[in-house]
Amino acid sequence: MIADASHDRGRFARPFDVCVVGSGPAGITLARRLAAAGATVALMEAGGLAFTPASQAIYEGETRGLDYFPLDMPRLRYFGGTSNHWAGWCRALDAIDFEAKPFNPLSGWPIAQIDLDPYRAEADAILDLPSATEAPDLALAQSGHTFHRIQFRWSPPTRFGPKYGEEIARSPRIHLVLNANLHALDLAPDGTAVTGARFRTLAPGDPGFAITARHYCLAAGGIENARLLLNFPTADGHAIGNRHDLVGRCFAEHPHFVLADLLLVDPPPGLDFYSPTAAFVAEHAVLNFGLRIEPARREPDPLASLARTPCDADFTLARRALEACAPRPMHRTPTPGTLRIAQEQAVNPASRVSLGDARDALGLRRAVLDWRLDDLDIHTMRTAAMAMATHLAEQNLGRARLRDWLLAEPARLPGLDADEVAGKHHMGTTRMAADPRHGVTDADARVHGLDNLHIAGSSLFSTSGHANPTYTIVQLALRLGDHLAARLAA
Ligand SMILES: Cc1cc2nc3c(=O)[nH]c(=O)nc-3n(C[C@H](O)[C@H](O)[C@H](O)COP(=O)(O)OP(=O)(O)OC[C@H]3O[C@@H](n4cnc5c(N)ncnc54)[C@H](O)[C@@H]3O)c2cc1C
């Protein structure tokens, strides 16, 4: 059923099995899974059924560090959450994404790919993906074992509000409460359990109301899950879940940059995707990445004359790649393209969400995002670009010229005026780790030290991989639903 916190408060003045905060892909998936298992769920959504500037304004914040989008731009604050404008790219994380890498301190998940595999079929159905199996790798001629040629799948994209609104309205178990902004969590005197969640509307002077449940779950998005926890103090002076000063740290994006301009003999009709083999990752100590060969949207000026020259003699390959392969003539007139990376980000505690002094309409401190990349991120970009330049030359498929900013020492990352910069994916801020000194949540997505507070969404990601996050968010939410249902039954 659907209620509005502005006037229906009597309808949800009762204890629930689970209180889920946020109705994006994570919250709706979790609520549906729990309801299917017989649990009663209060699904609390800050916004209404449609966009309003007043709700969206709560997402305003400050950015420091690397150039990044204004914080109220890459997420949406109403029913269905950011799925109201996501693009639908889907891919599961690779098995190696879950493994600890010695060159990436703190990396590794407390779960493995096989723990999420059982949820693939259902995630496919939820996201309306075209086939029930992950699109397989494609054949690739190469001299070594450097790349997989990989595929993504595309959701229509599924808008969770329109798709699941009617089902939720009819559900006797899910109570969707709109215009309900979480602004406080009450803790038991010993601080080990949540006893109530407090909400209010944006109406000035609203005294608000509390929801009580056996379990609570934050599903408010990768920046907001951390901002909310940081805003909620505990008796011992820490924020909730922040005994080890980890909430908001290890913020990861998927850096998106054009690394090289290409001349392609046989340009792909659309996008071609490549990712490294596990052997390449280990040998070169790089993060996981996805490389996209894109036909040029417009002819880059420095390449214009080269593109009209059928011979590559004057076209400079990226330094070492040139030495590795004697230039051979290209057989056909090449056409221009670009090489873009979308990559995993190193686990970096200095890259973080914290709180600023400014306050939102609810009195909570606003988010400050300090997004940082480190040497491992740059090393990954350079290694990936060089490997692809070498591959193109070896196979005589084309030639690559690495962008000057990447070859500069230190690298000069482009800002938003020059490139996409990032995928608008917010990960890692309540990362999972078996050891509370390394992560905010455990392998069951439970906040360390609290018996009944869980997290859903990409803030759980221990490392980000290179795949877009929503597929994994849905898998994790299904898994959390099963876990909570089992705990409720016990
Ligand atoms: C332009 C764009 C394109 C994208 N394209 C892709 C793509 O192609 N593939 C992909 O995998 N991902 C993509 N993403 C990312 C994707 O949208 C997110 O991964 C996904 O929406 C996250 O789901 P979520 O439920 O965790 O958070 P959200 O969808 O952000 O939902 C959070 C919910 O919590 C609510 N909320 C927030 N604060 C409170 C509060 N205090 N009280 C109550 N409720 C609250 C919000 O209103 C919202 O409904 C894209 C993102 C953007 C911006």
Key structural traits:
single chain, 490 residues, alpha/beta, seven-stranded antiparallel beta sheet, six-stranded parallel beta sheet, 21 strands, binds flavin-adenine dinucleotide
Quaternary assembly: single chain
List all distinct small molecules, including ions and cofactors, that are bound in this structure. Answer: flavin-adenine dinucleotide
Mean pLDDT: 92
The 3D shape can be described as: globular
Radius of gyration: 24 Å
Strand elements, count? 21
Q: What percent of residues adopt helix (DSSP H or I)?
A: 10-25%
Largest sheet: 7 strands, antiparallel
Query: Structural class given helices, strands, pairing?
Result: alpha/beta
Ends apart, CA distance between termini: 27 Å
Strand content: 15-25%
Which parts are unreliable, with pLDDT below 50 for 5 consecutive residues or more? Answer: 300-327
Helices, by number, come to 12
Description:
- Helices cover 22% and strands 22% of the residues.
- It is of the alpha/beta class.
- Strand 10 (194-200) and strand 11 form a beta hairpin.
- The longest helix has 20 residues, at 375-394.
- The two termini are 27 Å apart.
- The site of flavin-adenine dinucleotide (FAD) has 38 residues, from helix 1, strand 9, helix 6 and helix 12.
